[in-house]
Amino acid sequence: MDKFVMVIFGASGDLTKRKLMPALYSLFREKRLKGDFNILGTARTEYSDEGYATYILQELKEFLKAEEQDERTMTDFVGHLRYLPLDPSQEDHYPALKKRLVELCGTEQPDNLLFYLATPPSLYGVVPLHLKAVGLNTPHARIIVEKPFGYDLESAQKLNQIYGSVFEERQVYRIDHFLGKETAQNMLALRFANGVFEPLWNRNYIDYVEVTAVENLGIEQRGGYYDTSGALRDMVQNHLIQLVALTAMEPPAVFNADSFRNEVLKVYESLTPLTEEDLNEHIVRGQYTASEHRKGYREEKGVAADSRTETYIAMKLGISNWRWAGVPFYIRTGKQMPTKVTEVVVHFRQTPHQMFHAIGGGEPGANSLVIRIQPNEGSVLKIGMKMPGAGFEVKQVSLDFTYDQLGGVPSGDAYARLIDDCIQGDPTLFTRGDAVEASWRFFTPVLKYWKEHPDTALYGYPAGTWGPKESEAMMHEHGAEWTNPCKNLTNTDQYCEL
Ligand code: BG6
């Protein structure tokens, strides 16, 4: 095979310095990227090859953990970097790209290429066409496209058509970095490598499911992007729905890209279409407002002063199939929450008859299984146990597993895992074109409804709190409460225990 070159579009941007370069460096350090390869950064900013290497070296020092930094390896790594100033929107800049690749690869038709689109989403449809114009859509080339892939169903379909006219589906890698997380993948092992859960994993034994992905940060420097996106496009349509799929999917017959992605698609296609009442009553959207030490969303750089973009969303979903009919899935995400946590909580049904009391009275709580994606990665099964001593009072305790028991916290970053998979030609953990469309097919009516009803409620919540109280009401209808880890957290930046 020819020399490998990875071309990054958007090489001077935030994603490249925060995620891609640290991920590529870690692959290099682990000798997953070896031999004669180059990473060619492209963006509009002017850099020489050396200037770019120096810039990335500085950024690595900022974004890598101290224990990952090894001066010599870092210097060797940046020695593989090259740079070409290029405006990705301009077709006439692409012959220079081709020329540079021909030089780097030493062949007239470079083919062992990986293109990474870390540009603003508005360029996702343009770059592949320009690559085709100069014949860089070769049979072995691959292209990784960041999310959001489209901003609604129609635009996603259009993008799929463009990619389909330039590449084959096997060459297109739509990245959703949540699937690169070790703990998200572990959901599959937990469900399908164990016999105890599967018989219970259905509407007969499960009462409801919660999927939470909240963060204690605001939108940082991404106001321009975020204000046109909002939480639904940024987190729900991709990351959260992936977690729903991992929780709800049927076991694939074998674990390979097609079988796995077929099952994901089936979940998306089984989502119960939202009715007018759902759109109105079962979706709560919020926006963070200023609180003691934190800015309000509308004061963030790049955000319109009267913005109605949601930074929080909670909604109730249904899955219309034999396994899940009637089991609500409550999902939520938000910026500027009290803590950062991503987890799935599966709530089992209460026992049919209860003869014991909980401490202090009332029924002992039903069982639940908490699958913590991050941080404090692990799983906890909550079960009732008799308190020692007289009487029969039952207390809920945790049977827990943490990653320490597997020899430490999950190492390796999601981006490193996914880029490595792409280099190896394994698309399993990337979203297939039909699944992106199925997800948009479900969520586009929400966007449409908000557009047609601009006065749909948008609730303010003070930065650093658990979001609009209206989302509590949604749970109360089911006789339940959100599982808010670290309810009593006082230091709001601290991670919470399982
Ligand atoms: C990104 C979103 O895809 O995921 C961000 O665009 C969000 O807004 C991030 O902060 C969360 O990812 P993680 O891995 O930090 O939970």
Structure description:
α6 (153-166) runs antiparallel to α12 (433-452), α8 (223-248) packs across α9 and α9 packs parallel to α12 (433-452). The two termini are 47 Å apart. With 498 residues, the chain is of the alpha/beta class. The longest helix has 26 residues, at 223-248. The chain is globular and about 80 Å long. β1, α1 (14-29) and β2 (37-43) form a beta-alpha-beta unit. 34% of the residues lie in helices and 20% in strands. The chain contains 13 helices and 16 strands. The protein folds into 2 domains: 4-146, NAD(P)-binding Rossmann-like Domain (Rossmann fold), CATH 3.40.50; 179-411 and 432-476, 2-Layer Sandwich (Dihydrodipicolinate Reductase, domain 2), CATH 3.30.360.10. The strands form 2 sheets. The protein has a 10-stranded mixed β-sheet with strand order 12-15-14-13-11-7-10-9-8-16, with helices on both faces. A 6-stranded parallel β-sheet has the order 3-2-1-4-5-6, with helices on both faces.
